[in-house]
Amino acid sequence: TLRLVMLFALMAVLPGLLVYGVSVQFLTKSIESWFDVRVDNALEGGLSLGRSALDNLLRDLTKKGETMALMLSDQPESAHITYLNTLREQAGVQEVTLYNARGAMLAFSGNERASLLNDRPTPSILRQVRQQKTFAAIETIQGKKGLYLHVIVPVNVLTLREDVRVLQLVQPVPSQLAQDAETVQEIYRDYQELSLSRLGLKRIYGLTLTVTLLLSLLSAIALAFLISARLSAPLGILAKGTRAVASGDFSEMPEVRARDELGILMQSFNSMTRQLADARAVVEFNQQQMETAKVYLESILAHLSSGVLAFDDKFALRTVNPAAAQILGVDFPSFRRCGLSCGEGQEPAISGFADEISQQFQESSDKEWQRQIEFAGKTHKQVLLVRGTRLPAAVGSGYIVVFDDITHLLQAQRDAAWGEVARRLAHEIKNPLTPIQLSAERLEHKLAEKLDNADADMLRRATGTIVNQVAALKNMVDAFSEYARTPKLNLQKLKLNDLVQEVLGLYENSACRIKAELAPEMPEMMGDMTLLRQIIHNLLRNAQDAVAETVQPEIALQTGVEDGWVRLSIHDNGGGFPEHLMPRLFEPYVTTKSKGTGLGLAIVKKIVEEHNGKMQIENLPAGASVAVLFPSLEAHHG
Which of 57, 455, 572, 601 could form a disulfide with 543 if both were Cys (CB 3.0 to 4.6 A apart)? Predict the structure, then answer.
């Protein structure tokens, strides 16, 4: 549009400037021609000629007046009035008036009374006349047309009593001469005014031409803009449509109802945008469906308790859910775009887990496989039930691995099995123990007095051995019964510090002093005081047994709060736990002591789990640490 406007404006400007230049030159020369020297001289000559003719008439009338004044002075005063008319007729003057020195009219002679000058001479004229000076002028009379010759001369009277009299002559200028003189005067005056305004005329006409040219140019530019806008409107619509398409807006543009190339182009463009809009709608719908499916799948994976790992055909990790990272304790973003075996300084457990998965896929070919794999976690060994399968080519090929941590399940199965064994042992062994003990005591009672001393001593030793072993078996059966029995909790609000201080009072006289560090302002918790005392007793006895052979035994008991949990931890500087027994410390008959049933930690763990708590066991650089965590009431209500 701008280019079209500039083109049309240029087409209007060039001829306009040409016409403007010619007009200015023509106007300047025309105005200059008005003020030719010959015209100026001719006007000045005509004006001089008219003035000369009038001056001659005025001088002739003045001479007539002087002659009449001289004749009147020779006549007596009484004859002035009658003689005045004769003199007027002889001189051929139209109007003659006689005044005294004070301006009072004495006599008048004329064709029409007071038809020309009705006013007496002015004082200045009278003063001039008294000084023997003649007044002559060419004047116009108000209410009369034409020019008039006006002459006033003194009339000297011979008597001493009278002062000088004044004779006034009025003679009209011939009408043709007066008309010509006035015409020349007016033309000359107009010519002089025109001459004085010559520069102003040039400026006015130049400004008029300039304004006219500017108005013409502005009109031409406005018309050019309207025409250009009308011509370029389809192109503007098309440009707007292309910008909209470039920004992603495929809405249909207004149609241009024209049969030329632009109309066909706009129709094609609208058809193209409609097709693009339909295609984008399909793509957006498909993408929305994919996003919905992806969100749905991610939501399922995020809420699965099983770990899920997805690999591409080169075993590069593609997808992992939170459960997998939680079970394996691995930061999976470091494994993106590569396999589980990549990365510097990778833990051997992850590498072994990856090798085991890769081997299973190689052995199973296209079949699904399932296997239990032991995984050495950061805190303890885990047993993972791993299942794997190949993905079809329709979804991009690759592999998917699903695994569950069945360590706790196996532990629960073992605990259930041990509980069943304990119940059966308690039932099968406890019943015959009492008859055996009673029979041994009865034998000693009946036969001790009938035998000699040596045989009696041997009998007492044998029966004592039987009784002691029966008592040991009873203690073992009682321990099994306690392990197999599900404790009935008597829950109540309590503070762990109060319970710990109560139990520590029983160990004040022990061989190894216990160092207690109790945190202030511990939150309350729900627990069974009897069972919790049993936990503290068992842990303290285990710590005392662990430092029995230590030169400088040390036992530390600490309480505190950890992420909403009430924590009780006991540290010792004994020999610690053997590493090979760490995964099985909570199983019955697993112990590091020479004496004991190995049920202490198993019972403690069972009581802790009944309180919805958890246990943590670890070896320290010198000794071991056992921690028990219970949920606080504040965390429970929160």
Answer: 572
